[in-house]
Amino acid sequence: MKFLRKTRVILLVILAISLASLLISCQGEDIEGGVFYNGKWVIGCEDGITRAEIRDGTVGIQTGAFAGQASLTEIVIPESVTTVMSGAFDGCDSLISVENGISYVADWVIASDKEIIEANIRAGAVGIASRAFSGCEKLVSVNIPDSAASIGKEAFAGCSSITEITLPFLGATEDSTMNSHFAYIFGASNEDKNAEFTPRSLKRVTVTATAEINNGAFKGCSSISEITLPDTLVSIGSEAFRGCTALNTVNVPDSVTHIGEYAFYACHGLLDIHIPSGVSVLEKFTFTECKSLTRVVVPDSVTVIEPCVFGNCENLVDITLSKNLTSIGQQAFDGCNILTDIVIPSGNIGKGVFNECENLTNVTLGDGIEVIGENAFYSCRRLTNINAPKSLKVIKSQAFANCNSLVAFDMSEGVLEIGEYAFYYCSALRDVTIPDSVRVIGAQAFRACDKAIKKSANGVESIDGWVVYALPAVTYLVIDSSLRGVACNVFLECSGFDAVYLAGDSRLSDVTLCDGNGRLSSASTYVFSENEPSVEGDFWHYTDGIPTPW
């Protein structure tokens, strides 16, 4: 056993010596001009060197890499370097220059005076080391020039009094490929940490040179009230400003061609928004919960409004829509409760687009609209005026249900389908004309439209030649030349229904029967005869106004 232990110890010692030799030889092979490298990182240097030229392709300088090198008087840092760690140049007094409380090495900001109030970084500076301004609790304003290409992690961590900052880009690097969320410079590891790390004192942010505001860039930055964006900006990513509840002013420059989904979601304080003419799609939930937004112009470049774009914009009172819309997604204006008038020049109207817009009074629909989606105007209780465009083909289920102030909706030839409950409880509706083109009327499409309905003695309700409802107790139907169709499921609950009475030369086959009317086909069919027939067959006549078989 002792032999085995001794052997084990010897092997461990040999292994340790081998590893140490390997590390030393690797380090020796990665020395250039007295500078030590580990891959693409500078990790140290030889003592006593006076000049260091870091080789091109290097991406970072490690903490303490040149610390204590008092003899070092000159250094060249290539553009490839994107990260300088805090303390990389501690004690390099001959390299460091100080301007207005800010310490520089070459064109890099490496540290600052902790008492600094304003940080106006000099023009030409190319980068800011990590934690360069960390703990500057009196710092109020920061101005980073467009020359800067990188900002280190936690560069402004603990700057608890900062109120405004100007910077050329967001995140770590100017190409927006590394940590492109705003609060990275305050120590946030990802966009979901923005709210935790952004100083509550910060109110104004100016971005001067970037092409992109990436996904979630300002997500949760709830204290910022004003953001200024550059004319170089092309794209605003998904959730870019989501949850910026205090944001009331943001300029979206005309250069922008893309605004991502949820981009301004829950920006409760946003008063105004400019949608540039290069944007073609308003993506889902873009402005949902923008409770202070009052006016919006959707430019003619926009062809699609996706679902819920303006949902719960409860103070939206004026909106101008694109003339080139092809579709308006479901619930796009759901909850816009004070909107009173709107012109929809084009585009099919999706599900619940104006659901419960209770103050909507006047709607103008442009030619080209073919579909009004289900629940599109559901419970728009003050809606009195709306036109039916000649292009209209489909009115889906509950499209106008509970619009109890709607007086007229004049459908023109071309409408093919009226969905179930489409005009349910439109109690003010009168003089409805159903075009000959209609092939389907859904169940209870005109239920409780009492001013438009004609009621028979036995409880059958009809509108303009279409049977639209029957009381459960109905046992028969009279078919005459005025009857054009029967809506879906009309007799479904009429368990005692057993007779169809044909008047004149009318035939059941001439009537359009929608789904769910099997009782009509299976019922006994009687042909009208005013006098008692002399031949065998199923005949009927009136007895005191009630159809009766002979």
Supply database-style keywords:
single chain, 550 residues, mainly beta, Leucine-rich repeat, LRR (right-handed beta-alpha superhelix), 3 domains, 6-stranded parallel β-sheet, 5-stranded mixed β-sheet, disordered N terminus
List the helices and strands and how they pair.
Elements: H1 2-29, E1 31-32, E2 35-38, E3 41-45, E4 51-53, E5 60-61, E6 74-76, E7 83-84, E8 96-99, E9 102-105, E10 108-112, E11 118-120, E12 127-128, E13 141-143, E14 150-151, E15 164-167, H2 194-197, E16 204-207, E17 212-213, E18 226-228, E19 235-236, E20 249-250, E21 258-259, E22 281-282, E23 295-297, E24 304-305, E25 318-320, E26 327-328, E27 341-344, E28 348-349, E29 362-365, E30 371-372, E31 385-386, E32 394-395, E33 417-418, E34 440-441, E35 454-455, E36 460-463, E37 466-470, E38 476-479, E39 485-486, E40 499-502, E41 512-513, H3 518-522, E42 524-528, E43 539-543, E44 546-549
Parallel strand pairs: 3-5, 4-6, 5-7, 10-12, 11-13, 12-14, 13-15, 15-16, 16-18, 17-19, 18-20, 19-21, 22-24, 23-25, 24-26, 26-28, 27-29, 29-31, 30-32, 32-33, 33-34, 37-39, 38-40, 39-41, 40-42, 42-43
Antiparallel strand pairs: 1-2, 2-3, 8-9, 9-10, 35-36, 36-37, 43-44
